[in-house]
Design goal:
Number of strands of chain A: 12
Distance between the termini of chain B: 98 Å
Helix content of chain B: 25-40%
Strand content of chain B: 15-25%
Strand order of the largest sheet of chain A: 2-3-4-10
Oligomer: heterodimer
Distance between the termini of chain A: 16 Å
Number of strands of chain B: 39
Low-confidence stretches of chain B: 408-415
Shape of chain A: globular
CATH class of chain A: Mainly Beta
Number of helices of chain A: 0
CATH superfamily of chain A: Rieske [2Fe-2S] iron-sulphur domain
Helix content of chain A: under 10%
Mean pLDDT of chain A: 91
Strand content of chain A: over 45%
Chain lengths: 116, 838
Amino acid sequence: MYSNETTQKVTWHKACHVDDIPEDGGGCALIDGRQIAIFNFSRRGEWFATDNQCPHRQQMAVSRGMIGSQDGEPKVACPFHKKTFSLQTGKCLNDENYEIGTFPVMVKENLVYIGI
Amino acid sequence: MNSIRNIRIVVAGNGMVGYKFCEKLLARKKTEQHFEVTVFGEEPREAYDRVHLSEFFAGKSADDLSLACRDWYAENNILLLLSDPVVDIDREQKCVRSHHGHVVYYDYLILATGSGAFVPSIPGVEKEGVFVYRTIEDLELIQSHAAKSKKGAVLGGGLLGLEAAKALLDLGLQEAHVVEFAPRLMPRQIDEAGSRTLQNQLESLGLQVHLAKSTQEITGGDCIEGMLFADGSLLEVDMLVISAGIRPRDELAKIAGLETHPRGGIVVNNHLQTSDPNIFAIGECALAHHMIYGLIAPGYEMAEVVVAKLTGGEKEFLPFDMSTKLKLIGTDVASFGDAFIEEPTCKTIRYENKAKGIYKRVNVSEDGKTLLGGILVGDASQYNMLLQTFKNKTILPPDPEDLILGSRGGEEAGAGVMSFPDDALICSCEAVTKGMLCHEIGEFGHHTVDALKKSCKAGTGCGGCVPLVKDIIAGVMNQKGVYLRNVVCEHFNYSRQELLDLVKMNGLKTYGAVLDEFGKGDGCEVCKPLVASLLASLWNENILQKDRAPIQDSNDRYLANIQKGGTYSVVPRIPGGEITPEKLIVIGEVAQKYGLYTKITGGQRIDMFGAHLGDLPNIWEELIDAGFESGHAYGKSLRTVKSCVGSTWCRFGVQDSVSFAIEVEDRYKGLRSPHKLKSAVSGCIRECAEAQSKDFGIIATEKGWNLYVCGNGGSKPQHAQLLATDVDKETCIRLIDRFLMFYIKTADPLTRTATWLNKMEGGINYLKAVVVEDSLGIAAELENDIQQLIDVYQCEWKEVVQNPELRKRFTHFVNTPEKDPTVEFDSMRGQKKAAEWV
């Protein structure tokens, strides 16, 4: 299952078991030395992945943020200062100076894969 | 023919009060009652607004000032006969005869003959160029004479005299003088200091003021040329307006043999009945409670009382507040209550600013609790607030000077107009209360002063309440706005309070259920922690179980405070600040083992900083083994109950404050609320625990405990207010139970108790009524609800430590046990500190 379409060729990395990420919550996986925040947005039936680092104060905490939606757009709020980022585009929704990277997610046989 | 005869009413006088009587009668009459109303007026015009007469010179026409056009009388079947005063009353036959010979029979006669200008018997008053200031005709005469005059004077420095003086200035006279017999201006309203301030203001605007001048003679031939005073001095003027007071028009009553007062006025009882019970007198012709009420508001009230009587109601005219506020030639002047009461029967606070031309005086009761009266000159912006404070006997702030100076903390003294009770009279002319206005604004959408003037007549009398009406409009709109903003977020179209009730009634215990039932969409970082807090406040289940972990705010999510760099701090509970050496050693050992920075907090406990997420469960396991519990430093919940050492050691202590603090902290630990809660217990009046800066604070007395509530430290310090005095421990706890639960149920999200109280209508008195006197009848429910929360309390860290499912979430990575490699520390004074923000 692909949650994000992508034209770029990506390499799929096994990140974790689906149970490792709480429903409607997030967790952080270390993939090739890179911290990736993974979100199990079960209410929407979607998975998302972004950088774990918030570009505002360079804190590794996006995965600990609360997810939700704004006018239907899925988003995550950094727990430090509540900068919120679109889970689809990575754009900061309350401060246009910031943006985080997003990654495609694939769930196969209860395992979560991230495309980088 | 109809067997029920119409009730015939004759109104003698078509001034403001006579008109108001007709208006109120029409509004009040019941359908089965029929009145046949005849109105006689002496003036050629239908009733007009005499209060704003001087606006005639500022360009308003007679029509602008008219209260109702002639058609109005016709449409309402009122026969209006103008330029035709009543000249005789036959009380036997119950009929009146007018100047033009109309004879009209009455069942009830209403004398609303008003007053005339009092003209002292000074030689020369009959000369050309001498006027009174009473009717539009007077003003027309003044206007035409002023065109050929250079120097004008007003005899009389009272309220009307100064209005007339303004008129002379408006008419462009080169010199305008005010001559007053008394040693000060407006002697009935303001004191000497106020008069000095007013005089300075008036003189700076070109008016010349002569005080303590007794006029002996008006000099000149046919036409006035000057005024000769008792001290021998002469003032050359070519016109004079006499405004030396009013004289009730009681001559008709005298002819009819009704009782009048030797100094003028038709004597009436509390129902405004004259000595003939079928004849009433209202307005400035009536002498009620031994005085003539020369203001519009009591006149309207008199009309109301008589209308009530005639339509089967029962109302009495009570001594009426004579507070006034007006703008004289650009200068505010106001007086209210007992303006002149002197020490030692009161405490007087005076403020004088000569540079700005401001004088303020308030008279405060001896005990400092209530406002007795006051005077404002130059700046009367606080008048309405002060008047309401006076009328409602509102308890004054600890520093009553804040009333006139404003709080030096930057916020207005008192909580503003919205804190007035609903029955506070805002427009005394039309008897419109705050509650009625709120209703008009909120329910019928009358959002402007003009709309309110139409809908409930507020502000149509003297107009003095218009600023307050504006404040109420703003207040109600603000409340509506706040209400809209108070809707939780785009996912929940409810306020916190509404959502709390819904969740409780439906017994919902997970975020998902609440969102499914009452929300829409996917939720967000606003509604999730809010619902999390509600669920905790309602059921007190572990906040990380079911689907509740990911809806918790940053700190609650990991039961620790997230700090710079992404590590956490750990605060075990140390109830009352009391700790054994053994426990102190454990904290030291744990901090050493996990490399934590330690610091004593403001709440008498110890904070350990720099813990990795993955270390938290291990740290807590060790702390719990040593007998510690979560300190909830991360939660919107009870933090600490600080204490001084009290009577166990202190030579001043009168009660055991530490034991009580521990008891209180143990009782309310883990209680989640709209915002954090802090408390303290002091062992004596020295207040070393600073209980008065807490959400609830307790101070020992010789007889028991005093309970204070809604204090705050932080960015907006506020002293707590006394809720109960000398209560025993059990009562104190019961009151805190009620107070906390009432707060939890009614406060807006993230609102501390101090702000909650500030926004509460009725303030501390209302809170006292609810919590102490149980005015809402909810005390038992509040006590029961909080007892349930207390009964199910469990240390949430203990549950996490013992629950592998919960415990496994406390890792930085989901795919490796490594700690976050990006965490960095610097060192300082032998300990670590978080690396600076990049």
